[in-house]
Each structure stands twice: as structure tokens, then as C-alpha cells.
Design brief:
Radius of gyration: 20 Å
Mean pLDDT: 91
Largest sheet: 5 strands, antiparallel
Strand content: 35-45%
Strand order of the largest sheet: 1-2-23-22-21
CATH architecture: 5 Propeller
Length: 381
């Protein structure tokens, strides 16, 4: 593992959060989340060998506040090893906030309830891990599985459902959250699109929330330069049961055209992070052929948004209100070139009273990309 020096610049921006629900608005004004400074950057070497695995594809991370253990999930689907996650430590000095290192401490295989490994990519019931959360109340893990399906040009890909799995800290699945009918994978042009399934996951004392990366077939086309797209954010009670609500999140239009203009693009929400039961941070990540990555950090608020859980299509029925959102930071300006940022987690509180926010990248096991961790200090979390 190599260490690199942090960026010797300061980075500050204030998030002006939307109003709290009407019942508390008069007595409790919303707390502002302020990113006060940039703490540094760390990287892991490309295809770093560790505990018989190849490290890469890190698409989600979270921290156990009791022990300081970090959990990092890989979206490798059998190319370099079984579906897995890692535990590790991020070295953030509690006095100064200096971010000085990342080290792994264990590799854990994700297991099905019967103890078997998930089949590899291209096989039925394979897994596509995209997000991980530590539940401090049950001391278990939640992880998001994006699923898979056939598409034009790849009719051989079998159906694999998208899920939010519960597992113990050794990686063995214990149960799943019940998915709403409108998020069931099919082989037809309905339901979630391929690569637009569960990508973001958040947990609060009362709720579990999952975000699809992009639009279902019934909800419109993926983003273009001319228009954005509608993703769905689903909410469950943390203690289980069927989903209680679903809201619309409007993904931005593409920030620029690919090169050539007919080139490939991939744009949507890559992670969410809870501030409280109704406010979240959201990463919007775009990849544009010939251009590279563009990433923005938004703050969103579910208060006042319309529950669309029972709507199969957003084109029918009464008008609805999407979640509110506003820009927190253009991450292209923090570190150039911006990487494939897919992870978002709260770190430890500093002695100054500041919290820490860590954003990580998925290198896609590509030598031209980087496994990167960026740390920031915030006044609230």
C-alpha cells in the first residue's frame, strides 16, 4: 500500500438545508451542514493483492462508530474473486484532522443464507454489490445488490434480482428487505434498466433508504444533454416490513456531450448518505466517452415530496412533487481529474467538534482509474 500526500488546498462550502417538517419548523430551525476544510487524499495501488484477493471496484464504504472499523464493498463479480467486502482502518488524526493512511485488515466473502458463495457474473443469481452500510443498532450489515438482466446486444445475461440484503459482519446473508413490485427485474422493457438498479443505501434510527441509479423503463429515458431523468428512492422501516414510501429524485441532464456526440454515457446517482430521517447527501456521477467523469454532491430533502410507491409509471396519474435538491459541491474542482466516485460515509468526530466526510472511488479494475479516498471536515453530520 502506498501513501500519497494530501492536497494542500482548503475547500469550503455551506449546505443551506431545506426546511424541516411543519410540526417542528417553528421550534427547531434546520442545522446547516458546512464543509469547512479538505483533510487529504489517500490511494490504494492498482490491483493491490490482499488476502488472496485483488483489491479494486470499491463501490461503497461505511464505518462502525463503536470500534472505528471501516467496511468497504467491491463490485467485482467473479473476475478477480467472489463477491466480497473488506474491513479496514482510515487514519484520520483526531486532533488535526490530517488524513494519513488507509489499510485493510480483512477480506470477507459475501455468502448466501446456505453458506454458499454467489455465482459469478453471467450466471443466474449472481450478485452485483454496490453499497454497504453498518447498522449500529443491530451490529449487522446491509448491502445493496444492483441485479442484472438481458439487454440489446447481451441477450445471454440471465435475470438476477436487485435486493437490499442483511448480513452478519462475517458476510453471511440473513434476510432481504421486501422489494416493491415496481423494482422487480424482468426480461422485458419494464422495471429497472440494466445498470440502473440499487446503487445508493442509507440507514437512520427509524428507516432504511435505497436509491436506484437511474430511471425504470416506465419512468422515462436515461439522461441526455437535453433532459434529466427520474430515479426512485424507496424507504422501509428499519425494523422490517414492506416499503412504506417511494419518492422521485430528478437526475440532472448530462453536464456535457460525449466525444463523439454519439458516444456512450452513464449517468445517475452513485450513493446516498443520511443526515437525518428525511435529509440526505447524494452523489451524482456521470461518465462521458471522450470526456471522463463528472461528479456533483447534492443535499436532498424528502419533506413535502409525493409518495409514488403505488405508481407503476410516472407518466400517468396526478402531478407529483420530487424531492428537493441543491448543489453542495462540484467535486470536479476538488481533485482533477475527478475519479469514479461511488462511496460516501461519515467518519470520526474531531476534537474541534467537526465531523469527517469520506468520499471514495471505484477504479473498475482499470489501470487508467484510481482507488481514491477524499476526506473533508464538516461542522455537523
Amino acid at each position: 500500500m502506498r501513501r500519497i500526500l494530501g492536497i494542500a488546498v482548503a475547500f469550503a462550502v455551506t449546505i443551506g438545508l431545506a426546511a424541516v417538517p411543519a410540526a417542528t419548523a417553528a421550534s427547531a430551525p434546520p442545522r446547516a451542514v458546512e464543509i469547512t476544510r479538505f483533510l487529504g487524499e489517500q490511494r490504494l495501488p492498482h490491483k493491490m493483492p490482499y488476502a488472496g484477493t485483488t483489491v479494486g471496484g470499491l463501490s461503497g464504504l461505511d464505518r462502525d462508530p463503536r470500534t472505528g472499523t471501516w467496511y468497504l464493498i467491491s463490485d467485482d463479480r467473479g473476475r478477480y474473486g467472489p463477491a466480497r467486502f473488506y474491513t479496514g482502518r482510515l487514519d484520520i488524526d483526531p486532533a488535526t484532522g490530517a488524513f494519513t493512511g488507509v489499510r485493510l485488515t480483512a477480506a470477507k466473502t459475501l455468502l448466501r443464507p446456505d453458506g454458499s458463495t454467489y455465482p459469478p457474473y453471467g450466471k443466474p443469481e449472481s450478485a452485483d454489490p454496490e453499497s454497504i452500510r453498518y447498522d449500529p443498532w443491530t451490529r449487522r450489515l446491509l448491502w445493496g445488490d444492483e441485479g442484472d438482466r438481458p439487454e440489446a446486444g447481451r441477450p445471454d445475461i440471465p435475470l438476477s434480482g436487485l435486493y437490499v440484503h442483511r448480513a452478519d459482519t462475517q458476510g453471511r446473508q440473513t434476510d432481504d428487505l421486501p422489494m416493491p413490485a415496481n423494482l422487480r427485474m424482468t426480461a422485458m422493457d419494464n422495471g429497472p434498466r440494466r445498470n440502473f438498479g440499487i446503487e445508493g443505501l442509507a440507514i437512520t434510527p427509524r428507516a432504511i433508504t435505497a436509491m436506484t441509479e437511474g430511471p425504470r423503463f416506465e419512468d422515462g429515458e436515461p439522461p441526455t444533454v437535453e433532459h434529466g431523468a427520474e430515479a426512485r428512492l424507496t424507504v422501509w422501516d428499519r425494523f422490517g416490513g414492506s416499503p412504506r414510501a417511494q419518492y422521485v429524485y430528478r437526475v440532472d441532464p448530462l453536464p456535457t456531450a460525449p466525444i463523439p456526440p454519439t458516444g456512450h454515457t452513464d449517468s445517475g446517482v452513485s450513493e446516498i448518505l443520511a443526515i437525518d430521517d428525511h435529509r440526505f447527501l447524494a452523489l451524482e456521477r456521470s461518465w462521458l466517452e471522450g470526456v471522463g467523469y463528472r461528479v456533483k454532491l447534492y443535499e436532498i430533502d424528502l419533506s413535502g415530496a409525493t409518495n409514488v410507491l403505488d405508481r407503476d409509471s410516472l407518466f400517468t396519474g396526478e402531478p407529483y412533487r420530487a424531492v428537493s435538491k441543491h448543489l453542495v459541491a462540484d467535486l470536479d474542482k476538488v481533485r482533477t481529474p475527478v475519479q469514479n466516485l461511488e462511496s460516501l460515509a461519515w467518519g470520526p468526530r474531531l476534537r474541534t467538534g467537526e465531523c469527517t466526510l469520506v468520499i471514495g472511488s471505484d477504479d473498475n479494475f482499470d489501470a487508467e482509474e484510481t482507488t481514491q479516498f477524499l476526506a473533508f471536515a464538516t461542522r455537523t453530520c
